[in-house]
């Protein structure tokens, strides 16, 4: 069972099918979806399909709804096992919460949870090189640029490069120890 994560201003709870109504405006927003792997959702039905798939909480995949109080979802954070000890993190947050540190808070909570799991040694993120806000978030959290893959993705805005950022458990846990 996926735990609920409590941050100072946020509650990250397991994504539920019924979150699709609250998340549709997020997934329909062209600004939010600019750097996503697919374009904005044109219908609530599409959002329902995507939310239902991500709410399954299958082994090796976790998806938390970003909420202010445990209620309506404003985005999500995912953590997907890629191989033993290595996970990929992904996140999406509604424009109404941009620029206020909520993304950093949500991703921090998931990293704290992920790196507390025995054997978890590394988390990485796959980011479009032009997604400056996401790059800033990752770098502020201590992620290190590890690679640039040319013409890696075919998306709604064309064929795109991707950059990979990585964070090791010892780096994350060492940073937390220095802060404490």
Automatic annotation (TrEMBL):
Presence of the UniProt keyword Chloroplast in the record: no
Record GO terms (molecular function): acyltransferase activity, transferring groups other than amino-acyl groups
Database matches in InterPro entries: Acyl_CoA_acyltransferase, GNAT_dom, N-acetyltransferase
The keyword Transferase belongs to this UniProt entry's keyword annotation: yes
Domain N-acetyltransferase: 10-170
Name of one Pfam family that matches: Acetyltransf_3
Keyword terms: Transferase
PANTHER family for this protein: GNAT FAMILY, PUTATIVE (AFU_ORTHOLOGUE AFUA_3G00765)-RELATED-RELATED, N-ACETYLTRANSFERASE DOMAIN-CONTAINING PROTEIN
Protein name per UniProt: GNAT family N-acetyltransferase
Organism: Sphingomonas lacunae
């Amino acid at each position: 069972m996926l735990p609920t994560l409590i941050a100072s201003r946020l509650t990250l709870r397991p994504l539920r099918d019924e979150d699709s109504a609250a998340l549709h405006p997020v997934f329909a927003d062209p600004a939010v979806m600019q750097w996503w792997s697919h374009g904005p959702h044109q219908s609530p039905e599409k959002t329902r399909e995507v939310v239902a798939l991500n709410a399954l909480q299958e082994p090796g995949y976790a998806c938390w709804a970003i909420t202010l109080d445990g209620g309506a979802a404003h985005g999500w954070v995912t953590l997907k096992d890629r191989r033993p000890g290595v996970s990929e993190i992904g996140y999406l947050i509604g424009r109404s919460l941009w620029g206020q540190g909520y993304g950093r808070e949500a991703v921090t909570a998931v990293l704290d949870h992920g790196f507390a799991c025995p054997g978890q040694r590394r988390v990485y993120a796959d980011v479009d090189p032009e997604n400056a806000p996401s790059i800033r978030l990752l770098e502020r959290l201590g992620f290190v640029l590890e690679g640039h893959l040319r013409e890696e993705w075919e998306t709604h805005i064309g064929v795109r490069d991707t950059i990979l950022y990585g964070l090791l458990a010892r780096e994350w846990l060492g940073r937390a120890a220095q802060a404490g």
